[in-house]
Amino acid sequence: MKRFLLPLAVFLLLVGFLAAGLKLDPREVPSPLIGKPAPAFDLPVLQKAGQSHAPGAGRFAPADMRGKVWLLNVWASWCESCRDEHPLMVELSKKGLLPILGLNYKDKDEDAQRWLAQFGNPYQLSAVDADGRIGIDYGVYGVPETYLIDADGVIRYKQIGAITPEVLERKILPMAAALRK
Amino acid sequence: MIPELGHFALILALAIALVQGTLPVWGAAKRQPAFFALARPAARAQFMLIAVAFGCLAWSFYSNDFSVLNVASNSNSRLPTAYRIAATWGSHEGSLLLWVLMLSIWMLAVSLFSRSLPDAMVARVLGVMGLISVGFLSFLLFTSDPFERLLPGAMDGRDLNPLLQDPAMVIHPPMLYMGYVGFSVAFSFAIAALLDGRLDASWARWSRPWTIAAWIFLTLGIALGSFWAYYELGWGGWWFWDPVENASFMPWLIGTALIHSLAVTEKRGAFKSWTVLLAILAFSLSLLGTFLVRSGVLTSVHAFASDPKRGIFILAFLALVIGGSLTLYAWRAGKVAPGARFELLSRESMLLANSVLLLVACAAVLLGTLYPLFLDALGLGKISVGPPYFQSVFAPLMAPAILLAGVGPLIAWRKGDVAQAAQRLRWAAIVALLGALFLPLAFGRWAALTSFGLLLGFWIIGGSLTALFVRIKSGAGLGSSFLGMLLAHVGIGVFVLAVTLVKSYETERDVRLAPGESIVLGGYDFRFEGVKDVEGPNYVAARGTVMVTRNGAPVARLAPEKRIYHVQRNPMTESAIDYGATRHIYVSLGESVGDGKENAAWTLRILIKPFVGWIWGGCVLMALGGLLAASDRRYRSGTRRREQTADATLVRGSTA
């Protein structure tokens, strides 16, 4: 009698795994950078329209944000999903919950400036990664991407693709609050 | 109006399915003929309604009704008519409707070809099928409505995925689904027999032709899908061990085991509980496949856009159907009387060994398919399992099964005679060995694995021919079921030979050629004559011309294309193949090296694949074998009733 229960037992185990599988996303690729210091860079800052880069001034390095918990948001004016994500960024910056810094990725300054003027600028500043070299250090493989970086400059979370309100409320903001303590 | 009609028909079908799934089963338990007489008309009405719903959806596609969301997302006014109709099953919703349509066709068939069955049995079988239908119809109506409106309607549709715009799309999914869903008949017979508490030879005899019919469709469906991938994806592979391919292959393996196990149960009354378990598993794996494809738990090229709500629904349904039937199995299977005794060396034991091997092979495929999910769920990291795992696990499990299949038909039921079988098989063994050793020399390269593959192929063909010869000499009649079995085995042999030859002797080269340049590969001369732009009905293409000659004599003029479809804009390769009985010459167009200038060089992929066509030829032989076996006289209603009563007394006598 007992051996006839075996198929049922195996099946129930399988159902358990399948149910767990429903909560997972097989397309989500974990970033090896999580728990590692954010790669250093030193890049010019995107200027307001009409202004050119003043030599010596307006550069940004992640080290400048030491002691703060902040978001690094990789964006580009040519990126469609960035536009979907953008209102959420603007809203977040208005609430002032987290400093957001941009990394303007493989973009032209004029296009980037026009885009921010049109859709609003949530960024304290945007560093210009015109040739995408810093993007390689950060393992960017699709824009937009967002990194949550803690006070010691360590990457704590990475979002590939647009941030949704759900991810923001459930993951990023609670994590940021915990990190600030 | 038409889509609403279809939607309404589906709702009515659900209501009828509810009736069909409850009253006849209850009636059969309580011996109320008035209730179980409902089963047949209910099944027919359900078929009518689902066919109407399907027709309505097909009409919406045909008439370019872009106010239906499904049509707007998966079709386009410039899509050729045949593909517009095939687009009916191109989406998640539409393919699910096709699934349900196939189920209703099987129910209709059961209601028509069951005159020789006891009415109570028919009531139970159709009742179980009705319950399955309830599950899928509610899945369709509550989570995946194919008739959802898009208001205001779109001006034009987003087009069918270009990969699906192929003649194979018209027949591959219906065939495959016929096979998948067809196992629901064997499943329902098994559940009905468990409910009834009577698992006997007549149950096996009723189940057999239905199981074989489903298996034929599945065999052809899988073969078609494989052939499609071969010519469409542009790199010449024919099987990728992709999760969705595995999802169709697992029911096939279990279905094959089931056919063999049913033979034993029918002829010898043995393995009853094992056969029932296989019948439950075959359909369970079909359901599992549906879950894997539609829930998004695995990544695959075939997967539909996933939606967690759907995943939960199918999982709950899966747990209910499979969990319920396995519980019933655990409860009832222990009470089944054991069958007739047999010796260690007998056809029974060989068939048992074969079905165990098939089950283990299926478990290995299942493990490989779900392993990434297991690890991820346990938090042990993300991995993917590729062809090397499947090849190194699957082949060693199948090799002994094939060796056994060569011997099996020559071993008697109950108690086999080893010495006699060995003597009869000596010629087959000698021919197989010599062929395996020396054929590779004709191809110019000898390798142990090649030789072993050829040995398996020749062995099963030789063994089958020997069995035919012995049967003719003995003067016993040649039933079509026996011939069908041999033909299917020969099909396996042909398949194994073809796979071995392709794996061992294919040649492949990626080249860069400017117009006028040529290259020699495998004794053929390939001259690239350049690329022209051509206009298709809904795409533009760069069409290359490659002249193939051998020793100066023309062999073929191949025209591989690279297409850009107007709406979805992604490039598609259309490879060009010269089909020959002993080899395919396969050319696909890569990238233009010189920015699309007139005389630019292009990258080309050229393959010469010996005997590759026989891979699918072998599958067709298997399916034909199945057809022969299923058409055996003893399955036809007239002769059935008499034998069945005789058989029932026999079984009762032997178990008493």
Mean pLDDT of chain A: 85
Q: What does the largest sheet of chain B look like?
A: 6 strands, antiparallel
Query: What ranges of chain A have pLDDT less than 50 throughout 5 or more consecutive residues?
Result: none
> Strand order across the biggest sheet of chain A?
5-4-3-6-7
CATH top level of the domain at 1-165 in chain B is Mainly Alpha
Instruction: Give the strand tally of chain B.
Output: 10
The CATH architecture of the domain at 1-165 in chain B is Up-down Bundle
The CATH topology of the domain at 1-165 in chain B turns out to be Four Helix Bundle (Hemerythrin (Met), subunit A)
Largest interface: A-B, 21 and 32 residues
Which topology of chain A does CATH recognise? Glutaredoxin
Helix content of chain A: 25-40%
In a nutshell, what does this entry contain?
The complex is a heterodimer of chains A (181) and B (656). With 181 residues, chain A is an alpha/beta fold.
What does this 3D model show about the protein?
- The complex is a heterodimer of chains A (181) and B (656).
- The radius of gyration of chain A is 20 Å and the shape is elongated.
- Chain A has helices at 6-23, 80-95, 109-119, 133-137, 165-180; strands spanning 43-44, 59-60, 70-75, 100-105, 126-129, 145-149, 155-160.
- Chain A has a single domain (33-180), classed as Glutaredoxin (3-Layer(aba) Sandwich).
- The model of chain A has no long low-confidence stretch (mean pLDDT 85).
- Chain A starts with 5 loop residues before the first helix and ends with a helix.
- Helix content of chain A is 36%, strand content 17%.
- Chain A is α/β, with parallel strands linked by helices.
- Chain A is built from five helices and seven strands, in the order H-E-E-E-H-E-H-E-H-E-E-H.
- Chain B is of the alpha+beta class and 656 residues long.
- Among the domains of chain B are: 1-165, Four Helix Bundle (Hemerythrin (Met), subunit A); 509-611, no CATH class.
- Helix content of chain B is 64%, strand content 11%.
- Chain B is globular.
- Mean pLDDT of chain B is 88; it is low at 638-656.
- The chains are: A alpha/beta (181), B alpha+beta (656).
- Chain A binds chain B through residues 1, 4-5, 7-8, 11-12, 14-15, 17-22, 24-27, 29-30, and chain B through 273, 277, 280-281, 284, 291, 295-299, 308, 311-312, 315, 318-319, 322-323, 326-327, 329-330, 333-334, 370, 372-374, 376-377, 382.
